[in-house]
Every structure is written in C-alpha cells, then in structure tokens.
Design brief:
heterodimer, A: 330 residues, alpha/beta, Rossmann fold, Alpha-Beta Plaits, 2 domains, four-stranded antiparallel β-sheet, 13 strands, 29% strand, disordered C terminus, B: mainly alpha, 11 helices, binds adenosine-5'-diphosphate, binds magnesium ion
Chain lengths: 330, 265
C-alpha cells in the first residue's frame, strides 16, 4: 500500500537577515545550511495495517508524512502510495489519502463545522449519497451532530480533532495519515479518537500511518511500529517485541497522604521525589504494579497513583543501548 | 464555476459572527465617503473648473471609490491568507487538496469579495445614493461596461496580491513590504484622486502601470469620463495586464512550489 525506499529529504535553510526590508534582502540571500531531515528511510505498509511512526522531536516524522502526502518533494529515493508517486501526481494522490495534522486544522475558523465539510464535499467532488452516508457514520462514531453547527474556533481540542478526522475521511480515502492526532487532547477525548480510528480501520479497511508521542496510542492501536531517530529507521517490528525487549520498564507514580522521607521498595528504583509524590521505576517482568502498591500502601496511605508507560525518548535510548550491548557480545 | 459558488456560500456563513465589526466598518466607510464629499465640494467652490469634470461627477467618483474600498482594499487580499497559512504551517492542508493552488486562491478570494460586496459595498452605495449625491450611471451600456471593468479590476488586483502572497512564501514575512505596497496601490489606482489630476511625470507613470485598472478605469467609466471607444480601450488595457499577470503568477507559483519550505511541523 505504501512503499518507501531510500527516501531522503534535505532542507536548505537560508540564513536570515534581520532589519529594514529584511524580506526583500532575504530574496537575494545566498547563504544556506543544509539539514538532512530524512536520511535513507525504507519501509513498507500493507493494506489494512495501522502502523505507529514514532521518534523523538525533530526525528523526521512530519517530513516523511509531508512527502507521502505530496506536499514535499524528496531530495532522493523512491516512494509510492497505492501505486501513485505523490509528488508526481499530487492531485490523484490527494484524492486517495486523508490527513490530519494535530496542530493545524483544515477547517474554516469562523464557520460552522458542517459548512466546512460541505465545502470539502465540493472540493473533493463527493456525491450527495456518499456525503449523507458518511455524515451518518460520523454522527454515529464521532458524535459530530453534537457540535457540527458550532464554529471551529469555539470547539474544544478534542472536538476539533474529531471534526478534522471527519473532514479528512469524507472522500473515503484508502489511506489516512495522522500526525500527532491526540496532541493536547484530554484522556477521555483521546479514548474516543482511538476507538474511532480503530473502527474505521476495521470497518472500512483504511490503512493508517500514525505519529504520536503517547505510547498508549501505540499500545491500543498499532500492531506494528517504526521508530525513527535523526532521520533513520532504528526499529521496524511488532509492538510486543519492542515492549518485551526494551520497553519493560514502567514508572509507578504514587501520591501519599502526607510528606515522608524517601524510602526504597524491593525490585523498584526511586527515580524522583517531590514532597508527597514519588516516582518508582520497575521492570514489568520482575515486578508487578499491584505488588508494589501493596508494599507501599502497607507503609503509607496512598491518595492517588498512576502507572506510566516509558517515554519515546527513553525507548530510543534503550534501543541504542541494546544495540551497543549486542555488538559488544559479538 | 461550482467551486466559486461553494466558496461564496462558505463566506456567507461567517457573516453573523462579526456583527459589531460590521457596523463599525459601515460607519467608517460612511465617514470616509462624507469626508470626500466635503473636500470636493470645498475645492470646487474655491477653484471651479480646475478638475476637468463637474462637481457631481467628481463626488460620484470619490464616494464610489470609498464604497468600493470595502472590496478592493489592497490589505485584504489573498496575500494575507497565504502569509497567515505560511506562518501557522496550515498551508500544508491547502497544498494537500486536489486543487490547483492559484484557482483555489482565486475562488476563495472571489467568494470573500462577493460577500463583502453584498454586505458592505452595497449598503454603502445605497447610503451614498440617498445622502451624498452619488449619481447613477448615465445609461445601461455605461452601467454594463462599469460592471465588466470592475470584474477585470478585481482580476488585476487579485493577480498582484497573489504575487505578493508568493513573496510571503519565499521570505515568510511581508509586513514591511505590505505597508509600502498598499500605499503604492492606493495611490496609483486613483482611488481618491482621478489620474488626470496627477502632474506630468507621475500621471504618465500611473497611465502605464496596472494599478489604474482597479479604481480609475471602472470609476471613470461609471461617471462617463471614459465612454465609447475610450472605455473599450481602457478595458483592453485591463485585459492586457490580466494576460500578463495571470501567467506570471502561475509561473512564479510553479517555481516557488517546487522549492517550497513548509515552516514548522
Ligand atoms: N521547512 C523546513 N526547513 C528547514 N528545516 C526543517 C523544515 N521542516 C523540518 N525541518 C527540520 O527537519 C527535522 C525533522 O523535522 P520534522 O519532520 O518536523 O520532525 P518530527 O515531526 O519528527 O518532530 C528537524 O530538525 C526540523 O528542524
Ligand atoms: Mg512532527
């Protein structure tokens, strides 16, 4: 469905001049620095997959997605989306993909959501029947009808994301690109978005490529993930494997009833302490959260607790360490 | 064509939101029309016959110019939209659409202009007609030619604005340029003062620049200063500039698109 081979993108960044008429002078400026945002990436995505595309900030995720959407032309390499080379046939590609960029909306700010959808209907030449059918689906799964008469600027972030998803999907794309679709969204709204993404993947066989900073998105949605760093793929495989190999560590955050001195718990490491709040890192395979909670709770009353998944940055670090160890053994 | 209609409909849906803003704008247009009315009345009183046309014609020219400023203000074109989309990075969502970018901007801006015409320009014109001696065109033919040249004026202004918008893509900041651009356009377009009042060299310069297509030509046709073959010549002048500016804009966009950097992400 998606095929990417040796994809590379370099940005020429102009060194900007400041001051009077800087805009005009920048036109004639010739000083550049070159930044390789995507560096020889190769991967395949099969039809019907939901693939998590993750990596630290600046890893090159958005740049890859922009190339797959036909917005950016690669510096070198080959890419194909359902048989179409996006930058060569941008319009044909646009009709078969949908995309949501978490921080940017494609809806009109001052206009009720439904009117933006109607405009997009005309732009994508969606038939009346298809439009009505999809609207029913969106009302059903996204509860679009509860806010479709509201102008976008009055929506909550979660609602706006739902509206943007509807906008990206009403022309029945085969492939959906989601660039941080859950960023800044509260937990309940996140869960709704995830359910929806899973549903359209299952029901309509939409292939999804998703970037996120939330490991829960990956856990709940993806069977496979690609981890990239500095523009290169450093992991391509199942989510379980990465969890077992590298991501075994979890953090238990407990909030105690009153402030106590730091203390230790077997099979867990106190990594942070802030008054009544303590952070314990433990390995999933060595200790279970319920054991730890019983142990801590036996000593001090607990007010609140959460178990945190490892951060993506931490995952990336442990992948590098893992590789380092392996080469040492060899 | 369907696209133009869709964007127009879309623009009308943002209407009710800015009711306060609307009254404020209408009021300020009225003030400007009123000022122009008085300035010409006083000037004609002091130097009758110095401006080549009758006071009624001049007042009509000035008042109409102010009313049309609501749709032809150079600071409210597609360049503003493009600059804002570039700044926020949302230009990605525009580039993703299965639309020709130039056509997309034209349709979007056409819709907004039509919206502003019916909600701001038209009421201003009615006020001008009722209270400020705004004359009707001499005849049907005159009126029709005026509408044609107004549409062509829209195309010229759009094309110039589009080119400026492309500059925003390249330099990411056009504020200092916009400021100068707006001044130049308004001056050479003959919005406040008809071009024949300009002195020698500046008048000659204004005569060949495209800007006069925006206000001077439609307004002069309206008041009958340009009529018959002169009016057709002026319309030909507009067409020539459109034939230069549209391909220029599309060519520039093609080149810029291929080296487009999208900020942020
Ligand atoms: N338009 C651009 N011009 C110059 N550099 C860019 C541009 N877009 C992205 N970059 C750089 O490319 C790298 C990758 O960016 P991006 O793809 O946005 O990363 P991610 O989405 O993984 O956080 C970053 O170092 C970023 O600064
Ligand atoms: Mg990004």
């Amino acid at each position: 469905m998606i095929s990417v081979r040796h994809l590379t993108k370099e940005f020429k960044r102009v060194k900007r001049k400041e001051g009077f008429l800087s805009g005009v002078r920048n036109l004639f400026s010739a000083e550049y620095t070159i930044k390789r945002a995507v560096d020889d990436i190769s991967f395949e995505v099969r039809e019907g997959e939901i693939v998590g595309y993750i990596g630290p900030n600046g890893a090159g995720k958005s740049t890859s997605i922009k190339m797959l959407s036909g917005i950016l032309v690669p510096t070198s390499g080959h890419l194909e989306v359902n048989g179409i080379v996006p930058y060569k046939d941008r319009k044909a590609n646009a009709r078969q993909i949908g995309a949501v960029f978490g921080q940017k909306t494609q809806l009109w700010w001052d206009v009720p959501v439904i009117e933006s959808l109607r405009l997009l209907k005309d732009i994508y030449k969606v038939s009346d029947r298809q439009y009505k059918r999809n609207l029913e689906i969106f009302n059903d799964l996204l509860e679009l009808d509860t806010f479709c008469q509201t102008p976008v600027r009055q929506l909550s972030l979660g609602q706006r994301m739902r509206a943007d998803l509807a906008a990206a999907l009403q022309h029945d794309p085969k492939i959906l690109f989601l660039d941080e679709p859950t960023i800044g969204v509260d937990i309940v709204a996140k869960e709704k978005l995830r359910t929806f993404i899973r549903e359209i993947n299952r029901e309509f066989k939409v292939t999804v490529l998703l970037t996120t900073h939330d490991m829960w998105d990956i856990e709940k949605l993806c069977s496979r993930m690609l981890i990239i760093d500095h523009g290169q793929v450093i992991y391509d495989g199942s989510v379980e494997q990465i969890r077992d190999t590298y991501g075994g560590s979890r953090t238990l955050v407990v909030e105690l009833e009153e402030e106590v001195a730091d203390f230790s718990v077997p099979r867990a490491e106190l990594v942070k302490s802030e008054g009544r709040k303590k952070w314990f890192r433990f390995n999933r395979l060595e200790a279970s959260p319920s054991d730890l909670i019983t142990q801590i709770g036996g000593r001090y009353p607990i007010v609140d607790l959460t178990v945190e998944e490892p951060e993506i940055e931490q995952l990336v670090r442990s992948i590098y360490q893992g590789q380092g160890r392996r080469t040492e053994v060899m | 064509m369907r696209l133009f209609w869709s964007f127009t409909r879309q623009s009308f849906h943002s209407s009710a939101i800015y009711r306060f803003d609307f009254w404020l704008q209408l009021f300020s247009v009225f003030l400007m029309m009123y000022s122009v009315f008085w300035i010409w009345t006083i000037l004609y009183h002091q130097r009758p016959g110095a401006f080549g046309i009758s006071l009624e014609q001049m007042i009509t020219y000035g008042v109409l110019g102010m009313a049309l400023d609501t749709i032809f203000h150079p600071g409210r074109g597609p360049q503003m939209y493009i600059a804002q989309q570039i700044r926020s990075g949302a230009i990605d969502t525009d580039l993703m659409k299965p639309l020709d970018f130039h056509l997309h901007m034209l349709a979007r801006h056409f819709g907004e202009t039509l919206f502003r015409f019916s909600t701001l320009a038209l009421p201003s014109l009615i006020i001008g007609y009722l209270f400020l001696d705004l004359q009707l065109p001499a005849g049907w033919a005159q009126g029709l030619l005026f509408v044609i040249s107004l549409l062509l004026g829209f195309m010229v202004l759009f094309s110039l604005n589009f080119l400026l918008g492309l500059l925003a893509v390249v330099t990411l900041d056009i504020r200092s340029i916009t400021w100068a651009y707006n001044g130049i356009v308004r001056f050479f377009a003959g919005q406040m003062v008809p071009l024949w009042v300009f002195p020698g060299f500046i008048g000659a310069l204004a005569a060949v620049l495209p800007f006069k297509s925006i206000f001077y030509i439609p307004l002069s046709i309206y008041i009958g200063r340009l009529s018959g073959s002169e009016a057709w010549q002026a319309i030909g002048f507009q067409l020539v500039w459109i034939c230069v500016l549209i391909p220029l804009g599309r060519l520039a966009w093609g080149r810029i698109h291929s080296r487009l950097v999208v900020q942020g992400g």
